[in-house]
Amino acid sequence: MPMKAKPVYTTECEKDCDEVIWGDFRNGDKSAFATLYHRYFKTLIQHGLRVSGDKDLVKDCIHDLFMEIWKNKLNLSTPDSVKAYLISSLQRKVIRQLKKIRTRENGVLQWPTLDFVHSKEDQIISEQRKEEQRRKISRALEVLTKRQKEAVYLKFYSNLSYTEIANLMAISTESIYNLVSKAMDNLQGELTKLPEHKFQ
């Protein structure tokens, strides 16, 4: 895989430029491929670590992801958002890897707990009551559907726009607005039940 090719594109780029680079990559341009890798590596690391705290595992998954897209470049279409496509692909890959690990260790498939739960807890609860409040907040998050959790995660922890999330989840932008709004209302209702704390 031509990961060491030197990027020749500018660091900052709008969506249209991303589409040009993606098109060049699909045509076998090694510099375009290297640009995609270097441009989104930090973003993917940050996103992956919110799914799994194992940095080596996340790096391996990113490497495997780019190996796969290079190998299958001729069969790939141009996504509406390159960033959203890469984040979504990495998320699925990390989750699959975690499932394999947990199957080997426990013989049981378990959906990984998203670390964004814990990152928000630190803003909500005091240190001395962290463990007790963590359990309560985790229970509060159970009121959300899988789609609501995914939308909230992509919006507030991957910093995607509503349009990017809509493209990623294959539903309308208006539906994403409603999904996130409903999720936050549900969380507000549950978290206000916690003593001395209010979700903001």
Structure description:
The chain is an all-alpha fold. The chain has two domains: 15-106, RNA polymerase sigma factor, region 2, helix turn helix motif (Rna Polymerase Sigma Factor, Chain: A, Orthogonal Bundle), CATH 1.10.1740; 116-191, Arc Repressor Mutant, subunit A. The protein has helices spanning 15-26, 30-51, 55-71, 82-106, 116-124, 130-141, 146-156, 162-169, 173-191. α2 packs across α4 (82-106), α3 packs across α4 (82-106) and α4 crosses α8. Residues 135-185 form the RNA polymerase sigma factor 70 region 4 type domain.
Quick tags:
RNA polymerase sigma factor; Arc Repressor Mutant, subunit A; transcription regulation; Rna Polymerase Sigma Factor, Chain: A; sigma factor activity; RNA_pol_sigma_r3/r4-like; globular; DNA binding
In short:
The chain is built from nine helices and no strands. The protein has 200 residues and is mainly α. It is globular and about 55 Å long.
Question: What count of domains describes the coordinates?
Answer: 2
Largest sheet at a glance? none
Number of strands: 0
Order of helices and strands: HHHHHHHHH
Radius of gyration equals 19 Å
- Could you give me the name of the CATH homologous superfamily of the largest domain? RNA polymerase sigma factor, region 2, helix turn helix motif
Broad structural category: mainly alpha
CATH topology of the largest domain: Rna Polymerase Sigma Factor, Chain: A
Between the first and last Cα atoms, what is the distance in angstroms? Answer: 45 Å
pLDDT averaged residue by residue: 76
Strand % is: under 5%
Give the uncertain stretches in residue-range form.
Answer: 107-113
Overall form: globular
| CATH architecture descriptor text of the largest domain | Orthogonal Bundle
Task: Classify the helix fraction into a percent range.
Answer: 55-70%
Please report the first level of CATH classification, the CATH class of the largest domain: Mainly Alpha
Count, helices: 9
Keywords: Sigma factor, Transcription, Transcription regulation
Organism: Chryseolinea soli
GO molecular function: DNA binding; sigma factor activity
Protein name: RNA polymerase sigma factor
